[in-house]
Write a structure and sequence with these properties.
The chain is of the alpha/beta class and about 260 residues long. It contains 9 helices and 8 strands. The chain has helices spanning about 15-25, 70-75, 85-95, 95-110, 120-125, 130-140, 165-180, 200-205, 220-235, and strands at about 5, 30-35, 50-55, 80-85, 115-120, 150, 190-195, 210-215. Strands 1-2-3-4-5-6-7-8 form an 8-stranded parallel β-barrel, surrounded by 4 helices. α8 links the parallel β7 and β8. α6 runs parallel beside α7. The longest helix has 17 residues, at about 165-180. It starts with a strand and ends in a 22-residue tail after the last helix. The structure holds 2-phosphoglycolic acid. 2-phosphoglycolic acid binds near residues 153, 194, 195, 214 and 217.
């Protein structure tokens, strides 16, 4: 089953969330849909088809950590997943691989599934260090046991409108899979992200070991998020029916110019 994570970052209120849930309820798809929401919107999801994800977790258990949201608190909201080490956490909050690993372990301890984000910077990409960096990040951030998801997101592709090439994605996802396999973790889903939209998602859907996507900007509104589901439906397993209500988004995957 393919996975699609909509990462709302620091956006959205309760009305936006309800609107999105109602739109998603009208879709008929085999894709596992996960909404990664701000803490304020985690509670109150009664829809069993749509899973909720937090965007961060405290490294610490409950206790004297003012402002921190613990794993137990996230679990209590009904959320099932938590993003770990997203590029924006690394850039804006100086999160290291060590912190990411601690947080992933904390998530697993509390019955949550961590989605562990790894990705190279633009200068690392330009100096052809991507494989070395990703291998190190993967080994340093992922726990030795427990269920988790890995998300490969080149940091220079997040929110920029620039996506990685198909060849790069294929190479890196294969490498991630091979490394996980040596650790007996080959069942771990591997997601891809960075400026994914309905126009470019087809390029990546059928790449081996691309088990789904993390989508930021294009996940904020049903008019741009649902067409991604539609494209994924068309390119993967046979959906029972097509998604409806797509808004005005151009639904054709375009060839790169
Ligand atoms: P983007 O964000 O799709 O806006 O590039 C991706 C992400 O937040 O992971």
């Amino acid at each position: 089953m393919k996975i699609l994570v909509g990462n709302w970052k620091s956006n959205g209120n309760m009305a936006d969330k309800n609107k999105m849930i109602r739109a998603l309820e009208r879709t008929n798809t085999d894709i596992k849909i996960i909404l990664s929401l701000p803490y304020t919107l985690l509670s109150g999801n009664n829809n069993k088809k749509i899973a909720i994800c937090a965007q961060d977790i405290s490294e610490h258990p409950n206790g004297p950590f003012t402002g921190d949201i613990s794993g137990q608190m996230i679990k209590d909201t009904g959320a099932k997943y938590v993003l770990i080490g997203h590029s924006e956490r690394r850039t804006n909050h100086q999160e290291t691989d060590k912190i990411a690993k601690n947080k992933a372990i904390m998530a697993i301890k509390n019955g949550l599934i961590p989605i562990i984000c790894i990705g190279e910077t633009l200068s690392e990409y330009k100096s052809k260090k991507t494989k070395t960096i990703i291998k190190k990040m993967l080994l340093d951030c992922t726990p030795d046991s427990g269920k988790f998801i890995v998300a490969y997101e080149p940091r220079w592709a997040i929110g920029t409108g620039i996506t990685a090439t198909k060849t790069d994605v294929q190479t890196i996802h294969q490498m991630i899979f091979d490394i996980l396999k040596t650790k007996g973790q080959e069942k771990t889903p591997i997601l891809f992200g960075g400026s994914i939209t309905a126009k470019n998602v087809c390029e990546f859907i059928n790449i081996p070991h691309v088990d789904g996507f993390i989508v930021g900007g294009a996940s904020l509104k049903p008019a741009t998020f649902l067409p991604i589901i539609d494209q994924m439906n068309k390119k993967t397993s046979k959906p029972k029916t097509k998604v409806t209500n797509h808004g005005k988004q151009n639904r054709k995957c375009k060839k790169r110019s």
